[in-house]
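Study this:
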Amino acid sequence: MNAEALARLIRTVPDFPKPGILFRDVTTLIADGPGFAATVALLAEQAQRAGADAIAGIEARGFIFGAAVAARLVLPFVPVRKPGKLPVPVLAVDYALEYGRGTLEIDPGAVGAGQRFVVIDDLIATGGTALAAVELLRIAGGTVEDALFVIDLPDLAGAARLREAGVVVEALLDFPGH
């Protein structure tokens, strides 16, 4: 399945979560078996080329794609969580995101020293969430040089921000606007 076919599986919801935003919803892609399988296969190929030792997925839709990629490649999966979801002492980072502020947490015991992570999420917009995930994994002792996304919104420059932080960014699809 090519990028054009995958793009047709993405639902665009106008004015969500606020007026003027075109929300790119991957729910319809995930609901399409062949489309979801093709997406996971493409992300897995990119993660393998990047030399991943482990996959980190960002809550929530990054869990869907990241866990599937990790299983396909038989690699460890580390969830990057919203606050209060992990039952152990955590590392946490506050960050700015497109619609406000957020916090992400990880279990530092899930990260091996020097372990090479590829970060996966469904979409990159301003890059705040992905940068926080990269920072957390690096603080925990992991190496992060690659991040993969199903969708990039290049007008919001998040991929450029990640590149400035020394991360190679690849996305399967680009959509204009917010």
Remarks:
- The chain has one domain: 3-174.
- The radius of gyration is 15 Å.
- Helices lie at 3-8, 27-30, 33-49, 61-73, 128-139, 158-164.
